[in-house]
Amino acid sequence: MRTPWGLGVSLIFVACAGAAADDSPKNLGFEEGSVGQAPPGWVVTTAAYRADLVEGGAKEGKRCVRFHPAQAAEEPGVGILLQPVDARSFRGKAVRLRAALRVEEAAGGDGRAQLWMRVDRPGEKPGFFDNMSDRPVRARDWTTAEIRGDVAGDAEMIYVGLLAFGGAAVRMDDVRLDVAGDAEPIRAGGPRPLTPRGLDNLVAFTRLLGLVRHFHPSDEAAAADWERLAVAGVLEVEPAKDTDELCRKLRAVFAPVAPTARIYLTGQAPPPVPEALTNPPAGGRVVAWIHRGYGAKPFPAGLLGNVYSSRRGSHTLVDGKLPPGAQDPADAFPADLGAGVSCLVPIALYADESGTRPAVPKGEAPKPVAGRLTGDDRATRLADVILIWNILEHFYPYFDVARADWPATLRLALESAATDKDGLAFLATLRRMVASLRDGHGNVVFGEQPPAGPLPIRWDWVEGKLVVTEVAPEAGGPDVRRGDVVRAIDGRPAAEVVEDAERLISAATPQWARWNALRAIANGPPGSRTTLGLERADGTFHRASLIHAEPGMPPSESRPPKVAEVRPGIFYVDLDRVSDADFREALPRLEKASGIVFDFRGYPSRISPDTFFPHLVDHPVASPQWHIPTILKPGRGGMTFDRGGEWSLRPAAPFLKARRAFLIDGRAISYAESCLGIVEHEHLGELVGGPTAGTNGNINVIDLPGGYKVVFTGMKVLKHDGSRHHGVGIRPTVPVSRTIRGVAEGKDEALEKAIGIVGRP
């Protein structure tokens, strides 16, 4: 899995700091300035990139800007080019940012370009933000990219610019920032607790919405704006005073999209089957949803490849009768919605040349709410819970493993969302909700989250304690040392702080939860201080006050160079840092090695399995089993799986005959575990260290109203022998745990063990 959103957002926040705004946009066509120099009016905020004006090859006019990694940058990371604009003349307006982009080349395997725009408001109040993370540009030809957003009435600054990822060299030209009309009013309903009746009403609405949205195949349901319909439904249904009123309101909300759905009081006889479900049209069809995973939203282009799809399929009637295998429209799906209401929702419909039957008369279309939806609005927060709960209820493939009490999670999340004070507080509600899935890919990203920077140290959980493992020079010299035990963080016991952080982490294994919790508690507002209570090896205690850095990565771990001969004839290869080109360049040396240690303690994003594995095997090999769910009807029992899409890797020269060891720990997840699954199954070498994260499979990314993105695993991955991987991971054949003494002495104990293994005679 790769998640570009969080890093890009944080870097943009700090990139904007200190950039002075001009009254209006400048040099948007890049015709001003000197060729080979940075374009006037624009600022590069990342040292590993530079922007040069170039003559010729422009989209419009004579010049454009070329934004590319600096020559000396081995790993350029994210490049940020920006221009600050005074927001006063755009206040209360909808604006459109457009630019022509062209990706010339990329040093990494995922070179892409993204426009971005951010609106700053006073007091760190959230404003509009979009960085095109779900629609990056990879094209080698000029491509027009566009962002539309609203500028709040109190906005102070607008930042516009370009992001470059994966070592991409990008040309940009013909930038435009225009007013596209008046800004949409912002919805802002304040927090208020749910009554017991209101909670029951919303639970019933949630269940019905999921059935209709994902399984009722009417043309009207397929075309509905479900985000706004969900908000409108919350406002309509929550106040129902009793079961009769709830039943009436549910009928009113869903009649425009599901006129043949029957909603009735539990215990009473359901209404008769509508004629449209029993009278097939001559020469017509029967229509139903076919879900391969959850594919209603286009997947971010090229990020991992879209293996998921949601579409309506049809069977042609034969002599006015249903063909074999077709769902009978009259056989509606029954459900007890709770709160005294039940329903029968058709999951197939007859259709003719004019569409699904019956057609809803014009004027009866659903009336979604107006206004911009934000996490500061109570009804939007409740709708977000309802929308994502249903997507996960019907499409998450690991409920058999996670064993989450998902109905209880719904009620808790609705109660929390109703009283969250703002969009940032709601982020924690969504994260707790997703954490209950025990999915290592599970995460919630919020574009308006304030930036956070790391402490100038690294730490790890060693021998049951939080221990400092790396110290940057700015940490304060002798105040903090490797091997110091962190007993307290801002006056709270360190173990308690870690446990609180883990409650917001979705993880299939304890090691993944712990790793991410340790990263989370190391972050804080840039420039703020965190006070640590430290215990030395001699038993003495002292305090150290450390300053959080700007957004970015914590101090690097002490490791050898990414490809290094660490002992005569013994090589180290860090798969977390090495690229395809690095590996190919090192092959002649690796071919002569007597032992090789491959380090998988991280994410091998720069190297392809087609580059790496053919030199480790003497016969064709495949990746672990990948199973994409197929969902044709509601209920988890209706989920089936189709296997396919695994890697097929064939041997290539030179074959690396060296004795091998592979370093692993709880950081190795997803793609890393696909690789390690081959190592495990084919016995390619010893697995040294600790168990991996235990989560694999292509992710799904869901946008929610208010600027939230929810990530989850959309497919099931099994080991080569068909046994479970989720929550198990890859286990070491040679377990090695860090020790406080080893940390204090600067040792990499797992690496030392692996070197000893591959160095045996």
Automatic annotation (TrEMBL):
Residues 1-21 form the signal peptide. This is Peptidase family S41. Residues 660-736 form the Tail specific protease domain. GO terms for biological process: proteolysis. SUPFAM superfamilies: ClpP/crotonase (SSF52096). One of its GO terms (molecular function) is serine-type peptidase activity. InterPro entries: ClpP/crotonase-like_dom_sf, Tail-specific_protease. Keywords: Signal.
